[in-house]
Amino acid sequence: MRYHLVLRTVAKILIPLIMLFAFYVQFHGDYGPGGGFQAGVIFSASLILYGLIFGLAALKQVIRPWVVRVMLASGVLIYGGVGVASLLLGGNFLDYGVLAHDPVHGQHLGILLIELGVGITVAAAMITIYFFFAGRKTTKQ
Amino acid sequence: MFTAALFAVAVAMILCLLRMLLGPTVYDRILALNSFGTKTVLTIAIAGFLMGRPDFLDIALVYALINFIGTIAILKFFEYGTLGDESLEESE
Fold this sequence. Notes:
The complex is a heterodimer. Chain A is 74% helix and 0% strand. Chain A is an all-alpha fold. Chain A has one domain (5-134). In chain A, helix 2 runs parallel beside helix 5 (103-134). Chain B has one domain (2-90). Chain B is built from four helices and no strands. Chain B is flat and about 45 Å long. Chain A binds chain B through residues 1, 7, 14, 18, 21, 25, 32-34, 38, 42, 45, 48-49, 51-53, 55-57, 130, 133-140, and chain B through 55-56, 58-59, 61-62, 65-66, 68-69, 72-73, 76, 80-89, 92.
């Protein structure tokens, strides 16, 4: 893909816009269609596009495999941590209302944190799947 | 009016499907798949306006992005035989 000038230019223009759209889907999910899962998939799609155009080695320079593994675990940690925090504050598991003094603010904070955890984990999982697909030996004769 | 537009797009999608099944070369099929995805974007947008939910346009935008990336992935796989580096292929 070293000589495909049009593809490289289009990818350089599109990748920041895709990331911006992923953040829009992540943080606007309360009011419109969207949420953590979709935002994670869109965010990883931008990095997969980078890997397709510029190669797997370049993508591994941008985001190291150990960073992906840490992201994979920390999203689940955020999700479970919110649940345990609401348990410790006297509610049920994942009962967001007790997270702040006002139950409505607690609901907002809880859903934001949960969706953040889901988004981080899904993005890392999709990038890991791409790493393993792209790292295979070639099938062309 | 939206119903007529939806019907027209559905006819075009059927024609794309026929080209995808009949296409003599693999590039005909990929081109048909790409234009089928574009018509899916149009279908999502028209259906959103038909049901009175214009926020379906967000979903149409996402579908357009994923369609673009998927087409690039398929083309790269058929050209180089790998989704990663072509240098892996050269070293063999």
